[in-house]
Predict the 3D structure of the following.
Amino acid sequence: MGIKIGILGYGNLGKGVECAILQNPDMELAAIFTRRNPETLTPRTKDTKVISISEVNNWKDKIDVMILCGGSATDLPEQTPKFAKIFNVIDSFDTHAKIPEHFNNVDRAAKEGNKTAIISVGWDPGMFSLNRIYANAILPDGKDYTFWGKGVSQGHSDAIRRIKGVKDAKQYTIPVESALAKVRGGENPDLTTRQKHTRECFVVLEDGADPAAVEHEIKAMPNYFADYDTTVHFISEEELIKSHSKIPHGGFVLRSGKTGLHNENSHIIEYSLKLDSNPEFTSSVLVAYARAAYRLNKEGSIGCKTVFDIAPAYLSPKSGEELRAQML
Amino acid sequence: MGIKIGILGYGNLGKGVECAILQNPDMELAAIFTRRNPETLTPRTKDTKVISISEVNNWKDKIDVMILCGGSATDLPEQTPKFAKIFNVIDSFDTHAKIPEHFNNVDRAAKEGNKTAIISVGWDPGMFSLNRIYANAILPDGKDYTFWGKGVSQGHSDAIRRIKGVKDAKQYTIPVESALAKVRGGENPDLTTRQKHTRECFVVLEDGADPAAVEHEIKAMPNYFADYDTTVHFISEEELIKSHSKIPHGGFVLRSGKTGLHNENSHIIEYSLKLDSNPEFTSSVLVAYARAAYRLNKEGSIGCKTVFDIAPAYLSPKSGEELRAQML
């Protein structure tokens, strides 16, 4: 019997989890839970049960870990504390500023239910955070850099779509190569927002919309675009579907630090991701941490945790002996 | 009062630990222990005590963590189990094939003394191992690649120095850029030893030695050079001292993996290090894990551990709250 996983929410992330479970022989998908009418939802894998979220309490003893695949804006702040009382849970809560509050809410709930919750799992927060903590602990005298992309920003694409006259849009965040090169070269540059990333937008207009007005509105949008060098391309709907339907992403975390009695030696630690599918990679991280949550709960380690609190061995299906012999 | 660190062995690694402690305000150097006559040893930092290893038992209650800075060939297999009975210890044991045996010996000793030991700490084994375990857990369907360099290989430099007619030598291990590019491009190549690294040697000859004979002997040396494209440069002793006295190193750990219902999406995870000083960077990792050993022992978590068994938060001087607010 494998670890029985439940998926709550069946968008891109939920679909990614469904696929990732197939790659992990020690896991099995127990059911997908949805707020929609279960009959309207067709899972990607055969014979997968789809259950209404209203029946989730009946699954208390049939799910080892529930992976919450909702959004950070409104779903997870409510769902994670709620379900952490009933299940071991994993979420990908990524509103950085609200993590402390979310952690406290989930911690209280998980302890009440004797469950283990791991929040903010994915790649940023997640793998990027891990690289920040390791690199900072090793090189206390140094400087951190995070670059994102090249990849699709869902939030920026949505912001463009809300503009009047825009039918559809995709926005790519692109790291500035020359800035990356300076960091890699150990120059420790101070970089402005504009110097780190550019933004490239592919926009489909509604009939009769004014391209100049739309372009101006995009480029002037505070927070999203005003502080960046932004390029806008107007393309047909066919072209958008043909060339911009994937959801790639990635990025770079670097720490540049000094050692030596007089700081005479420089070191660069760099971690990077190049992802064809942002949601599928995030899902794969969620599934690895589901294994950890299952094991930690078996050991009686309850409450809310983040990637910082989990020893790496808990993520691997291999035993300690195998890991030491094969991976150390 | 900071965490009281002892350094056992005062070579490049011990000197690196001495410097790294200065960068960590929660730590202090209690003493350096040496097999040499303590009077013959001058620490890099002022007022540092140097103690004969024969007196180490008197320091049982004055040291929180002893960092063992000896070599893997003969020092650590004997020292780590011996001192793990008396102190919390950290070592950088890097003979990959013998790690399981070393682990068992140290585990037995540490448990006997109620101490915490962390072995094989550094960057490979160490940070590279961490990246292998995380990447494998996230992308079970994938392929691992490790490239080393550009950097000085002490073992290969020593092998050249043992050749008759060679006065001194430095050997650089260099990753093959085109092979790295193929891996980054997601091609999943099968790479031979020769295709992954080249070796570049800078050799100072004894008076009257035959360069052609030395070059032939280097290039034909089994294991060390025969399987590689090797370049040999003969230079003066002055030039070797001037241009090849540093001990840089580094390397790349990559995992290329697939996700999706039909493996339709590719992902590349890459971790790389570019180090001016191999021993100082390794020392900095040792010191971060010393903090973990100290805390784990306080919690009653005894026995032998590796980097796989340590949650990242234990390495950082920051609290859980600070880490979640600042680094997640």
Observations:
- The first helix of chain A runs from residue 12 to 22.
- Residues 155 and 224 of chain A are 9 Å apart (CA to CA).
